[in-house]
Amino acid sequence: MDGIINLYKPAGMTSFQCVAAIKRIFKTKKVGHAGTLDPEATGVLPICLGKATKLAELFLCCPKSYRGKVLFGRATDTQDVWGQTLEEKDASKLTIEQVRMAAEKFRGEIEQTPSAFSAIKINGQPLYKKARAGVDVEVPSRKVFVYDFSVGTDTDDNLVDVEGGKKEIVVNTTCSRGTYVRTLCFDLGRQVGLPACMSELCRTSYGPLGLEDAVTLEQLEAGTDTDLEKFVLPLHYILKNYTCIDVTDIQLKRFINGLPTTVAKYQLKTLPEDFLYPKAESDKAYLMYKGKMVAMVFMGTDTENDRVLIKSWKYFGGPEINADN
User: Fold this and answer.
1) At 93, is the secondary structure helix, strand, or coil?
2) Kind of pairing between the strands at 3-9 and 160-162
3) What are phi and psi of 26, to 5 degrees?
4) Residues with Cβ < 8 Å from 131, sequence gap 6 or more?
5) What is the DSSP letter of 118?
6) Residues contacting residue 261 through CB under 8 Å, at least 6 positions apart
7) Cβ-contact 197, 182 below 8 angstroms
8) What is the Cα 18 distance to its own chain's centre?
9) Is the pLDDT of residue 325 over 70?
């Protein structure tokens, strides 16, 4: 089975454990996930099955949205409440106006320095492994893009008093790949002059995948092999910013036999750009044949015949698509 599952990851499970569960449920080994969620975080975790694993790199470019909570008055080594306390301070005088003004500074391109307890890799090794081993590591700063960062909810934008002189508030953000929400929470605290950390996190969307449509492991466990198919989205689900080319029988046969293949310009279909999907590269497209995705291709120009020359980039065709059909 090939495709994408919009999985709801529960708290207390690692992303790797979710992949292991999907392998068992779907009885397949070729499974991967896009965009790790920390064990205590919940929400949308894209799972790629079979040939969809070839698209993981494109999925990683999708913007993501989160709903979380920031706790003012405590800072930790992991920048969330599950880490070791580094500093505490009374936050009882903090006002919602101060928080709102501070949040305005976290939109657009910003620079972050995540915690050493992060999945950032240095020389191929995640930083958190070195941090857990007690090794001092220098965390590189990075530029990320925050489309939106707001505090409160539609019905309640008040700070909540927490025991010990601390305060807590809901935060919502839509951000680019590589953004650490717990670092946003930590930096928001610094902006108002208080130690702070993230106390809750739920990924509410990942590109086109939304929390409202996510499926739980319990739902998948209860399904039969036939039932499971309805939870698997097609390979091209995240490629709506890319040009789509519906190929003919003759074009397909030439393409899969490695022969020079061209298509007419009218066969190229492009939808209006949507930021929820990966930014399309203008020289790439995906091929469709009878409703199934065959490949992703590079597009060139056949100037002599005023046609588009296509060359394979990622091939997805299987036994059902062959040179003899």
Assistant:
1) coil
2) unpaired
3) -90, 0
4) 77, 115, 116, 117, 137
5) S
6) 251, 254, 255, 309, 310
7) yes
8) 15
9) no
pTM of the full structure:
0.89
Q: How far apart are CA 324 and CA 56, in angstroms?
A: 31
How far is residue 145's CA from residue 176's CA, in Å, rounded to a whole number? 5
d(CA 41, CA 200): 7
Residue 117 DSSP one-character state? S
- Our CA angle for 293, 216, 14, nearest 5°, is 95
CB contact set of 134 (below 8 Å; sequence gap of 6+): none
Residue 187 — left, alpha, or beta (φ > 0 → left; ψ -120 to 50 → alpha)? Answer: alpha
Phi-psi region of 222 (alpha: psi -120 to 50; beta: other; left: phi over 0): alpha
Assess whether pLDDT exceeds 90 at residue 167.
yes
Helix 181-191 with 96-103: angle, nearest 10 deg: 120
User: Which of the residue ranges 183-187, 265-269, 271-275 would you say has the lowest mean pLDDT?
Assistant: 271-275
Question: pLDDT tens digits, residue range 154-164?
Answer: 777 789 999 99
Residue positions counted in the chain: 325
Contact between 203 and 40 (Cβ < 8 Å):
no
**Which among 56, 203, 77 has a CA at the least distance from the CA of 128?**
77
Which residues participate in catalysis according to the annotation? 38
